């Protein structure tokens, strides 16, 4: 009996052909580098990058969100003034 999910890989892609269309090609192996395998130690590259950029990204989000709130308040005040 064949499973319906037999073509789904650990990363969720249904086929390597679908992955091959990605800009970097078929890069399913990033998981092996990031998390390691039973035969290979992990060589993380995404988690350290995220750790380094989470504070600047959060700061930029707060700045842009604050600007959006100020714009929304100004727009609401103009509407009420009419």
Q: Which SSEs are present, and which pair or pack?
A:
Elements: H1 16-20, H2 30-35, H3 46-81
Provide structural commentary:
- With 82 residues, the chain is an all-alpha fold.
- It has three helices and no strands.
- It has helices at residues 16-20, 30-35, 46-81.
- It is elongated, with a radius of gyration of 23 Å.
Kindly name the structural category: mainly alpha
Q: How large a portion of the residues is in β-strands, by DSSP E?
A: under 5%
DSSP strand count: 0
Helical residue percent band: 55-70%
Order of helices and strands: HHH
Q: What is the overall shape?
A: elongated
Integer-rounded radius of gyration = 23 Å
Q: What is the average of the pLDDT values? A: 82
The description of the largest β-sheet is:
none
The number of helical elements comes to 3
User: Distance N terminus to C terminus?
Assistant: 70 Å
> Stretches where pLDDT falls below 50 for ≥5 residues?
1-8
